[in-house]
Fold this sequence. Notes:
- In chain A, 35% of the residues lie in helices and 29% in strands.
- With 309 residues, chain A is an alpha/beta fold.
- In chain A, β1 and β2 form a beta hairpin.
- In chain A, α3 (91-101) packs parallel to α5 (135-147) and α5 packs parallel to α6.
- The longest helix of chain A has 16 residues, at 165-180.
- Chain A starts with a strand and ends in a 6-residue tail after the last helix.
- The mean pLDDT of chain B is 82.
- Chains A and B meet through α2 and α3 of A and α1 and α10 of B.
Amino acid sequence: MIEVAQLRKSFGDLTAVDGVSFTAARGEIFGLLGPNGAGKTTIISCISGLLTPSSGHVRVDGHDAVRDGPASRRVLGVVPQEISLYEDLSAVENLAYWGGAQGMRQPALGERMRKVLELTGLEDRTREPVKRFSGGMKRRLNFACGIIHQPKVLLLDEPTVGVDPQSRVRLLDLVRAQARDGACVLYTTHYMAEAESLCDRLAIVDHGRIIAAGTLVELRAMLAERDLLRLSGSFQAEAAKAALAHIDGIEVLQADAELLILALPEASRRLPAIFAALAAAGSEVRGTTLTQPSLESLFIKLTGKELRE
Amino acid sequence: MRFLWISLRKDWSRVRRDPFSLATSLAIPLILAVMMSLVFGRGQAAPQGRLLVADEDSSVASNLLLGVFNRDPLDKMLLVEKVAQADGRARINGGDGSALLIIPAGFQEAFLRNRPFQLLLFTNPSQRILPQIVQESLSIMVDGAFYVEHVAGDQLRAFDTRNAPADELIASVSVSINHLVTSLRRYLYPLAMDLETEVVAEPGESKSFAAMFLPSMIFMGLLMVANSLAFDIWKERLMGTLRRLAVSPAPLGAFLAGRLIFVATVFALVALVGLEASRAIAGVPVPNLPAAAMWLTFAGCALFLMMLVVALAASTARAASVMGNLIVFPLAMIGGCFFPFEWMPAWMARIGRLTPNGWAITQFQAILSGDIDARKLAVAVAGLTVVSAVMFIVALRRLRSGFLV
């Protein structure tokens, strides 16, 4: 349903997307995970036809997003990162407008409006101006406007930013429901937990490039089921590295004067040995954080930095 | 095509939900129009001042002199008020009145005896036109008095008495005047001089202030509303709705056309309400109402498209707002929206008529006065349509490329 091949997008000297390729199939939730500014929104904009790629190809349901834009947009549903609604208008008026923009007509539009209002839990506030809605309700309506025409391909650009936990759970359920109904969902986020719980396949994006891609299992395997240990304190980097080299299975991912990041199996059991080695090397440990294998630890392993930095 | 109507309906719904944003655009011209109407009412455009007169002679001659100011057309411009000299001086020194005329005691006798006399005129320096009118009028009357005294001095001197003249005197003077007229007959019947007059400017019926200001106020309203509606494209961009629309299959051209039709209906409404209100409240006659309303609608749409191109050219909403105001206010000032062209220096009025709104106001004035025929109006509308079409295309191209990114 979505085919992205060697996508590249530059703005002057800045290359926002650099040779990105992936595919996403019908009924699949494909996640783009990366920090703010990684290029996720630019990728979505190129797929939706808002931006013209500098090079590469994007096909949506078989239609070229650039050369056959209108046909491509007809099968697309987009839920933008910002709330894109007419706040003076009611939920019904917004849905009618965006349904009309997708070419829907009555009575099918009316029927579908009732359904999405029910799905998003807004059926009691249909005539009220959107400006009186809470942030979570606006997000749900924003989502409803994106799926009003039952799109074959759904692009979701960080749809849960700033949403309360209750609305977040509801929104994620809605996304799963879309995929169950056969839509191909492309979901961007910088929330690891969301990506882990929602996506069938994932691509981790940083600086406009995909640095890892696969299913959650495949990605975890890249860490070799190792824990991630972050030690803060005062270190002599080279001496600490040398001391830790004697402990089996330890990989030093990052070492500087104040932070050590280590990847190792069964870290909790081996903490005393690590502390002893570091103390012998003249280091002082003031804080310890142990992370089980996750997308975050993979991201840190791949980029040497945290996802939200 | 269907989306055009959907877009139009959406724009009207937004106005219905928040009418104040549009109403505030009309506030400035509306307030100005109401203030003008209150200050000047429905009266004629001629200014009216007050002539203070200290008549210390209280004679037939002094009354004849003052009678001139009570006749048309001076009576429409000047209200004559008799005062004591001291009171008159105090008032004119305080700026109350256009001029103070002091007719000294002995004026009539001096006139009849052909002796020098002095009329004292004090003018108010804060006024320019009315004191000058009084001065010119007095000067003409003094010249006239000189000739009357020369021609009929002897006959007039016969009446130089404070008492009622005797029958013999009246009979004698009558015969004398008859002889005088007989002697002048060859000059008077027919008149030896034939004075040809040429009206340089069509005086017509002078306009009331409200009528003079009507085109200005209406076009100021159009300009303000056009600027406000054009800026709405930035609100749509900031709301994200424009980006969302751009990734839907709905054509941006239909969106823009829907917006233009919405704008046209707003302007048609503003025009009809404005013109009807002017007629009903300020008593301004509005002949050719359909043509006038149609012209205002067309002109409003063209102004909207012009301001839309400006807004779309800006890189930020703030820049768009600043650029819009930088263009609207000077255009309004010089283009006849704040002051009628009739009040401007000729050079400025000439430039002002070349501005888009100035040109449109000139055509509108011609429609109101019936000075434009159907063919000329059609040409003007066609010209406006072509310019509007070009601006529509420019706006659409900008919307499609660059503005949303």
